[in-house]
Amino acid sequence: MSSRTYAILGIVALAFVVLGILFTVETWVECPHCDGRGYNTKKMTCPQCNGEGTVVVEKKQICPTCDGTGRILGGLFTCTRCKGTGWIYVTEIETCPKCQGSGYVTVKDTCPYCNGRGGKSVSLWEAWFGG
Length: 131
Known about the structure:
This protein is an alpha+beta fold and 131 residues long. Helix content is 18%, strand content 35%. A hairpin with a 4-residue loop joins β4 (71-72) and β5 (77-78). The two termini are 19 Å apart.
């Protein structure tokens, strides 16, 4: 809050005390532990790549030896590279899609002090004088 807001709240609080007004005015106080977000973030090792930043991916491709037919030499013989399936599997190393190669992921934890609300509603008196 700005100093002007505090000054106005102070005048209102003083008027309540002087005039003996009995009702309580509530205000919202932002949680100092999470800055009003309701959660805190922390970095953790990426569970998909174990912090390496890369993952091994096996991809299915058309066999280049037989062009996917599974046969070679005019169809006389079974292709030895793909064993007649027409497909081969190629292993590649790619950037981890979960952490984008950083090796870490950001996890949000609910703030234990405000239980995810981001703050609490308190009386003006409590906000100014702590209780």
